[in-house]
UniProtKB/TrEMBL annotation:
<feature type="domain" description="Methyltransferase type 11">
    <location>
        <begin position="134"/>
        <end position="181"/>
    </location>
</feature>
<keyword id="KW-0489">Methyltransferase</keyword>
<keyword id="KW-0614">Plasmid</keyword>
<keyword id="KW-0808">Transferase</keyword>
<dbReference type="GO" id="GO:0032259">
    <property type="term" value="P:methylation"/>
</dbReference>
<dbReference type="GO" id="GO:0008168">
    <property type="term" value="F:methyltransferase activity"/>
</dbReference>
<protein>
    <submittedName>
        <fullName>Class I SAM-dependent methyltransferase</fullName>
    </submittedName>
</protein>
<dbReference type="Pfam" id="PF08241">
    <property type="entry name" value="Methyltransf_11"/>
</dbReference>
<dbReference type="InterPro" id="IPR029063">
    <property type="entry name" value="SAM-dependent_MTases_sf"/>
</dbReference>
<dbReference type="InterPro" id="IPR013216">
    <property type="entry name" value="Methyltransf_11"/>
</dbReference>
C-alpha cells in the first residue's frame, strides 16, 4: 500500500500488489480507510451512524466504575508484558512508532505505552473515538509496509473474520525485527454479539504468529477468571437477564485471585485468554514445531 495522498477532497492510495486504486472519504474530519469490498461493514452503514460504534458500550461512573474494576482489574501478567515491551522499545535509537489495532479505548494495562515520551502512538478502530486517528478494518491496514517498530493487538483477533490475514498485515507494516504483542480470548463466552467469531488455545495462538520469533507467550487470565465468566453466563441464561449475570459475576469476583495459585501449565490448558509477544522474522515456524511447543499440563514429561 502506498502512502495516502489527498486528491479532490478524498484520500487516495495505490496497492502495488493488485494495482488497485483506493479512494477513501472522511466523516467529520476523520479518515474512513475501509475497503468495503472486503469488510463486514458497508459504506452506507458507516455513514448512517457517522462512523460511531455498532456496539453500545456503557459508560461506568461512581460505584459502577468501582465494581467494574473489582471484577475486571488490570491483569498482572499484562502489566509485566507491557513493561517488558516498553523496555525493548527504549533500546531503539530515537522515538519508536507504535500502532494499536482496535484502539478505540485505552486497552487494559497500556497506559505505559500511551504515556511514554519516546513512543509515538498511532491508533485505529472500526469506529470513531478521541483515541483513534482514523477508522479502518485490520484485514487491510491502509498504511505502507515497514512503518512501525511495534504493533499491539489486544482483544481484537476474536472479532475479525480472518485472523491470519490480520496477522499478515501486522507483519507487513512492521519494520524488520519489529515487535508484536497480542492478547486473545481462549475459554471465554461470546461478547459483542454478532461481532465475535474466534477463540485460540495457546498453541493455536502461537501458530497464528508463525512468522514471528517467540519472545514469550502463555496464559493471560487463568481458569479463575474463566470460572467467573462462566458463572455470569450461566446466571444470565437461567434468568434471561444480563443484569442477573453481572450480579452473579460480582459475587464470584474472588475466583480470579485463585489464578495466582495455579501453575503455568494448568493455567494454559484452562485459560480465559492467551498472549503472544514476538519479533518479526523471515523464518516461518513449521507445523511439526507446534507439537513440540506445547507446554500445558497434558504434555508428556520425561
Amino acid at each position: 500500500m502506498s502512502p495516502l495522498r489527498l486528491e479532490g477532497g478524498k484520500l487516495v492510495a495505490n496497492d502495488s500488489g493488485s494495482e488497485r486504486v483506493f479512494e477513501y472519504r472522511m466523516i467529520d474530519g476523520v479518515p474512513i480507510l475501509i475497503d468495503f469490498e472486503q469488510s463486514v461493514f458497508t459504506e452506507s452503514e458507516i455513514t448512517c451512524r457517522k462512523a460511531g460504534s455498532a456496539i453500545v458500550r456503557p459508560e461506568y461512573t461512581g460505584l459502577q466504575r468501582s465494581l467494574k474494576r473489582m471484577v475486571s482489574p488490570a491483569k498482572s501478567g499484562t502489566r509485566v508484558n507491557i513493561l517488558n515491551l516498553v523496555r525493548h522499545l527504549e533500546n531503539n535509537d530515537g522515538p519508536s512508532k507504535v500502532l494499536i489495532i482496535g484502539g478505540g479505548s485505552v486497552g487494559n494495562g497500556l497506559e505505559p505505552v500511551y504515556n511514554h515520551p519516546r513512543l509515538e502512538v498511532y491508533s485505529f478502530d472500526v469506529y470513531v473515538t478521541p483515541y483513534v486517528q482514523f477508522v479502518a478494518d485490520a484485514h487491510r491496514i491502509p498504511l505502507p509496509a515497514e512503518t512501525f517498530d511495534c504493533v499491539i493487538v489486544q482483544a481484537v483477533l476474536e472479532h475479525v473474520l480472518q485472523p491470519s490475514e490480520v496477522v499478515a498485515e501486522i507483519w507487513r507494516v512492521l519494520k524488520p525485527s519489529g515487535l508484536v504483542y497480542a492478547e486473545t480470548p481462549f475459554m471465554q463466552q461470546v461478547h459483542e454479539g454478532a461481532f465475535d467469531f474466534t477463540r485460540f488455545t495457546e498453541s493455536g495462538h502461537r501458530y497464528l504468529f508463525r512468522q514471528f520469533e517467540r519472545l514469550d507467550s502463555g496464559a493471560n487470565g487463568g481458569p479463575g477468571i474463566q470460572f467467573m465468566w462462566a458463572v455470569d453466563y450461566l446466571a444470565r441464561g437461567l434468568f434471561r437477564s444480563r443484569k442477573v449475570g453481572k450480579m452473579a459475576k460480582l459475587a464470584c469476583f474472588w475466583a480470579q485471585y485463585l489464578d495466582h495459585l495455579i501453575p503455568a501449565p494448568y493455567a494454559e490448558d484452562g485459560a480465559s485468554g492467551v498472549f503472544f509477544y514476538g519479533r518479526k522474522t523471515q523464518r516461518v515456524f513449521s507445523p511439526p514445531e507446534i507439537i513440540a511447543h506445547y507446554r500445558g499440563a497434558q504434555a508428556t514429561r520425561r
